[in-house]
Amino acid sequence: MMGHGTHVASTAAGVEVKDVSYYGLAAGTAKGGSPGSRLAIYQVFSSQNGSQGSTVLAAFDDAIADGVDVLSLSFGSSSFLEQEFINDPIALGAFHAVQNGITVVCSAGNDGPNPGSVVNSAPWILTVAATTIDRVFESDVVLGNNKVIKGTGINFASIQNSPVYPIIYAKSAKKSGVDENATRNCEPNSMDQEIIKGKIVVCDNEDSLYPQRNKQDEVKKLGGIGVILIDDELRGVAFNFGTFPMTVISSKDGAKVLSYINSTKNPVATILPTTARTNYKPAPTIAYFSSRGPSTIPKNILKPDIAAPGVNILAAWIGNDTVQTLKGKDPPLYNVLSGTSMACPHVSGIAAAVKSRNPTWSPSVIRSAIMTTAAQTNNMKAPITTEKGTAATPYDFGAGEVSTTGPLQPGLVYETTAIDYLNFLCYHGYNIATIKIMANTIPDGFTCPEESSIDLISNINYPSIAISNFDEKAGRRVNRTLTNVAGKAKMEDAKTVYNISIDAPAGLDVQVVPDKLHFSKIDEKSSYQVSFSAANPLKKDVFGSITWSNGRYKVRSTFALSSKSGSVALDKK
Fold this sequence. Notes:
Blueprint: H1 4-13, E1 17-22, E2 25-30, H2 53-66, E3 70-73, H3 89-99, E4 103-107, E5 126-131, E6 135-138, E7 141-143, E8 148-149, E9 165-169, H4 180-184, H5 193-196, E10 200-204, H6 212-221, E11 226-230, E12 246-249, H7 251-263, E13 268-271, E14 275-278, E15 306-309, E16 313-316, E17 334-337, H8 340-357, H9 363-372, H10 394-397, E18 412-413, H11 418-428, H12 432-438, E19 465-470, E20 476-484, E21 496-503, E22 509-513, E23 516-519, E24 525-533, E25 542-549, E26 554-563
Parallel strand pairs: 3-4, 4-5, 5-15, 9-10, 10-11, 11-12, 19-26
Antiparallel strand pairs: 1-2, 6-14, 7-8, 7-13, 9-13, 16-17, 18-20, 20-24, 21-23, 21-25, 22-24, 25-26
Helix pairs in contact: 1-8, 2-3
């Protein structure tokens, strides 16, 4: 999409600009995550050729040569086309970048809510899921009985606010010989123009291959004056319908609209132009499109790592775009977009701010600071939920919703070393010859451990813990090492004691030894071991966390376990 790069770049590092909006919507002051940072932008897509792997790798090489501190990649492969690391230009380029001290932040993908759809899952990449914010764009429906139905969408409709327009369920306009499912979904060539003309049309969006834009175009072509789309997932994201009256409502509210249509001989309604509503609750929630774990390439790494705002994000836009321009208006300088592409630069900006405050920190230390200080509750002080209202899990949000301030002073960090990454490649199944192809440099004398199984990936010093094919009878132990960085913010914090707290689901026994970690100086390291066991087979994947606290800092490590007997089989070949 033209303008995509401008939008994500301004989200990461745009300077403060007052009085901005998208044609009056979301009005206020815009500022990127790290407005003091300098931007270097590397073009890897073209309208003629798309993106080539060689172009991606060349951009990584250029960025390394330029000495950048953070790389933000708001793109990736489809989950159905995810490749092994040795063939994946993003994973390869990111590995070289991290070897050169560059933090690499990538979007998790937009193939949600399918399980196992997360991409950019290499452990040296910081992988970002998308969540909603506490601002929504409402375009409500007013029925002839004066009931108001809440809808979502961006439209600048100029029809009357009073319910004076005939409203019809698309199924009632079925062409002869056309499948009823096609008609109720407002698919092309399925509706009778004479019945649709001059009416607001209610469309389903169930088991349909056609996106909402096609439904809008079809109704408009047939002379309809508006569309009410019923879709629980799309209800959470405000799509831009321009000046055409269109909105998206929930299935629960859809039933109310259809009930009204069937209750009167001459049903009427209207669709109101969009208004922005702030302080919306609950927020954040997981965006329906955000790709989900568990990761399959690789196993035993919990992905995504973190979640960040990625729905209805206002950011800078190119000034010569005609597609997003309203009739009779100048091209917009700001635009509203949604996607994990929008979530990624939020985290990139925070990573840049952390690097600015702590210039000697490695990419893995910065990632740890971001992950271990994340939040798992919403603005109602309740657990974060999915788009369906069910409790979200680390497969949805990783460590949780990113904090803008917590990563600046995390207290303790998990540093994943170069040897950890090399061992990971061994455990993943690569031999030393393949690893030498992937890595710019490896330490003299490095060889793969004699015991190199995929299960050992759980033991690299990662901020979260993932164990696949958990054997309840045998149990499992993993080790972690924490480094004290608190004293770098305040010298008296260097000497401290951290106590453990464990949040584990019923049926899973989690023990941590030792249960206290003592630190007396900056950069001091202390290790612990976590033992997982269960008396009975786990019937499903389970989640929990281990939190170290000294009263000032809380350092949380999230875990996910899948049982041989209870987990969903997800394998990509």
